[in-house]
Write a structure and sequence with these properties.
binds zinc ion
Length: 209
């Protein structure tokens, strides 16, 4: 599945559990990119891409990876402010959900709205949909979502349904299967169902049927 992701312009959000295959997918997408800044929460990027490791969010530079010592909104905000000094660049947020504790007003929102005009693309990776600002989803260009558990809070799915009408399908996917969406007018239009056919997934789907 090739998607036409413009790394210095578009925003892609990838949502999936650990071991769903989302890291491999993201690695494919960022292959063409030679200028990136990474919030390297699980310490996967620095070695792989030869990025400079940085501990202080205000000291990120082009082709550096922030390995933050805490997961706070303040750290996230500083990282974004520092990253926005640059242009023609991809910003990768690995495991952004660690930093967002249901706080909708962040620098992330600013970046989402203005980043494109500054030559900044974004890849935002999260374990879960719940906790992400709705606006973040609505303003994305691509949404790629794996299996998400049936949401526990009663009206949680309803909150997302206006932007992701097919949201209920995601609890029925097998672990490595995903749906790729193009966001159009703040609504997720499915463009590709990538059904995994490994033995585990086939077994899982037969259990759901
Ligand atoms: Zn599978």
């Amino acid at each position: 599945m090739n998607i036409d992701f413009k790394w210095n312009q578009d925003t892609l959000i990838a949502i999936g559990a650990s071991r769903s295959g989302k890291s491999d997918f993201v690695k494919q997408v960022i292959k063409p990119c030679k200028r990136m800044i990474v919030l390297d929460s699980n310490h996967e990027y620095a070695e792989r891409y030869g990025l400079k490791k940085v501990k202080n969010p205000l000291q990120v530079t082009l082709n550096s990876a922030l390995q933050a010592s805490d997961y706070t909104l303040s750290t996230l905000n500083k990282f974004i402010i520092a990253s926005r000094q640059f242009t023609n660049c991809l910003i990768v947020f690995e495991d952004i959900d660690l930093f967002l504790k249901n706080v909708p007003e962040t620098q992330a929102k600013n970046l989402q709205i203005n980043g494109r005009h500054q030559g900044l693309g974004q890849i935002i990776v999260s374990h879960r949909l719940v906790g992400l600002p709705l606006l973040m989803i609505q303003k994305a260009d691509y949404l790629v979502m794996w299996k998400v558990p049936k949401m526990l809070e009663k009206n949680e799915n309803d909150k997302w349904r206006s932007s992701i009408p097919t949201i209920d399908l995601h609890s029925q996917l097998s672990t490595h299967s995903k749906i790729v969406y193009r966001m159009k007018s703040e609504v997720a239009k499915p463009i590709h169902l990538d059904q995994c056919n490994c033995a585990e997934c086939i077994l899982e789907r037969s259990g759901n049927a």
